[in-house]
């Protein structure tokens, strides 16, 4: 696992202490009250940083279980993984459709188009 910022480390320690497992998910509002110097955007960046470093930080928006938590088991991590993978696949499809549309629009208008990868 790679190095993480001090703020992300603080969030990690808090989640490891108070939010192991889906049933112990901590709402975003609660985390923002705990980490008062952090705004919502920075909290999301810290969560992303933890995930990028390999920590099993999950989130749910379902009523009754909304919030962030550390997956305690494969069974808890797998649905979050599958949901994330599904969103990526949908975004990839949308990007391909937009690319097709861009090329068609450029051809129809005579405009030059170069897309970088």
3D structure, described in words:
The chain has helices spanning 6-18, 28-34, 40-52, 74-109, and strands spanning 57-60, 67-70. With 117 residues, the protein is mainly α. It has a single domain, classed as Arc Repressor Mutant, subunit A. A two-stranded antiparallel sheet has the order 1-2. A hairpin with a 6-residue loop joins strand 1 and strand 2. The longest helix has 36 residues, at 74-109. The two termini are 28 Å apart.
Question: What secondary-structure arrangement, pairings included, does this model have?
Answer:
Blueprint: H1 6-18, H2 28-34, H3 40-52, E1 57-60, E2 67-70, H4 74-109
Antiparallel strand pairs: 1-2
Helix pairs in contact: 1-3
* Main beta sheet: 2 strands, antiparallel
User: What radius of gyration results from the CA coordinates?
Assistant: 19 Å
Strand content: 5-15%
Unreliably modeled segments: none
Q: Any guess at the CATH architecture?
A: Orthogonal Bundle
Characteristic key phrases:
117 residues, mainly alpha, Arc Repressor Mutant, subunit A, 2 strands, 7% strand, elongated
Summarize the structure in short.
By secondary structure, this protein is mainly alpha-helical. It contains 4 helices and 2 strands. The chain has a two-stranded antiparallel ribbon.
